[in-house]
Amino acid sequence: MYIGKVVGSVVCTHKDESLLGLKLLVVQPLKDDLTSKGKKIIAIDTIKQAGMGDIVYLAKSNESGLPLKKDLVAADAGIMGIVDDYYIKK
Hints:
Blueprint: E1 2-10, E2 24-29, E3 41-45, E4 55-60, E5 77-82
Parallel strand pairs: 3-5
Antiparallel strand pairs: 1-2, 1-4, 2-3, 4-5
């Protein structure tokens, strides 16, 4: 799992059947200090509550579709939850 910030959304006229009814969001992965890390990714919003500016935690690959209880989802990342508070002891 890793964290990221929702920075946009994606609108599709056609989707894979496994993605029907799911919101696609653009997420910028973050480092531990909440600075940007790498390229932006497209993630499915499995919790159906994430939105612009939210800090979220994500799962990769097969785990991205676990909350949906489907055998296979055509996604590389899935939003598992919204981060309410974030603290690292130094």
